[in-house]
Design goal:
The protein has 369 residues and is α/β, with parallel strands linked by helices. The chain is built from 10 helices and 17 strands. α3 packs across α4, α3 packs across α9 and α6 crosses α7.
Length: 369
């Protein structure tokens, strides 16, 4: 079902296209979320600042091959916390202090000097946390074909980086087989909710964990997990997995949190089990060395542990888009968003990711058109 916002977008699309053209050449006061400086612990709202820019001319310099876009939706993702550190040994560089935060978004082209994009096109990919952006790296963008059955915001969630992460992580890394016993941590999040549903479609038995009773109910009642539990209520994770949820062991563990949860899963893996390491949100603020007690299981049970990035599988994106769009329209899968309205809500929404405030994929609606 389309959201009210997307119904409004569809109704005003033609008029909005004309409005976008009318903006060309105008100078606007551009609201931005500025990254103030590198952090040590959890991100806080005051690590970011809402500022009014000096003015942005909505016109692309000739010969620049760039585009100017109006940002509609922005994505809040846990990986962005790593870009707030003064660390350059990762797969993606840190943010630049004093500049607008960068992330995935859905935007509308206002002006273009790139032959691949024209005024009025809808695009998804890397943009800035601001109302309007001048984008030079247009190879990081994909054109969106408007679809009445798919909300635009889903292109930063279900059909964006989180959805693609779930898809390739489950099918390519986990090597699933019908009847497998599958465990998903952070199961109500942007990635986990889809992993669980894909596993069910594949004929697996699926258990998920989350941090509130509300999220546990969501996993069972709306997302179709066979079982779910609140990890905060378990005094002994090893025993909980063994005695109540996986008495026969785990074939696949899709790991979004790391730490003690990963250690507990290792203790309960079946022979030739697979662990897909997608995220380590529990390790965000660790300063000590993590100790694992159950690593011998990796040897005795011949467990495969593999980390991955969705960018390793871009050649599969077209297949992913076709599969997920089809399953969504056939109502074989659902997707849950946590939508905040207004650019000014972005810092609080982002910080809330690390205390579990969001229910589903966290998205910021910057503008309707």
């Amino acid at each position: 079902m389309m959201s009210n916002h997307d119904e409004q977008f569809e109704a005003t699309h033609t008029e909005g296209s004309k409005m976008g053209i009318d903006l060309v050449g105008k100078t606007v006061k551009n609201k931005q979320i500025i990254f103030k400086g590198y952090i040590d612990g959890s991100p806080m709202e005051n690590d970011m600042e809402l500022k009014l820019g000096d003015g942005l001319k909505l016109e692309v310099p000739k010969g620049s091959n760039a585009i100017v876009v109006k940002n509609l939706y922005l994505s809040c993702d846990p990986y962005m916390r790593g870009r707030m550190l003064d660390f350059r040994g990762s797969y993606i560089p840190p943010f630049t202090p004093g500049s607008a935060i960068e992330g995935f978004g859905v935007s509308k082209v206002v002006d273009s000097d790139d032959p691949n994009f024209k005024r009025g096109d809808l695009v998804s990919g890397i943009t800035n946390w601001e109302e309007y952006s001048l984008i030079h790296k247009t190879d990081q963008l994909r054109k969106i074909e408007q679809d009445d059955g798919i909300p635009l915001s889903y292109h930063v969630g279900l059909l964006g980086m989180p959805g693609f992460t779930a898809y390739v992580g489950f099918y390519e890394v986990c090597d699933p087989k019908k009847g497998d016993y599958v465990y998903v941590s952070a199961a109500s999040g942007a990635v986990g909710q889809l992993v669980g549903q894909l596993a069910k479609l594949h004929g697996c038995y699926v258990v998920g964990s989350a941090g509130t009773s509300k999220k546990v109910e969501l996993l069972k009642d709306k997302l179709g997990f066979d079982e779910a539990f609140n990890y905060k209520e378990e005094l002994d994770l090893d025993a909980a997995l063994m005695s109540r949820y996986f008495p026969e062991g785990i074939d696949i563990y899709f790991d979004n949190v790391g730490g003690a949860m990963l250690d507990a899963a290792l203790a309960n893996m079946r022979i030739h089990g697979r662990v897909a390491v997608c995220g380590m949100v529990s390790q965000t603020n660790r300063t000590d060395t993590q100790t694992f007690l159950n690593m011998f299981s990796v040897i005795s049970k011949r467990v495969t542990i593999k980390g991955f990035l969705q960018s390793d599988f871009v050649h599969l994106y077209a297949r992913f888009l076709e599969d997920i769009t089809g399953w969504y329209k056939q109502r074989k899968i659902v997707y849950i968003e946590d939508m905040n309205n207004g650019l000014e809500s972005a810092p609080a929404a982002f910080v809330g990711l690390f205390s579990g405030k969001n229910v589903g994929k966290q998205v910021i609606c910057v503008a309707s058109e």
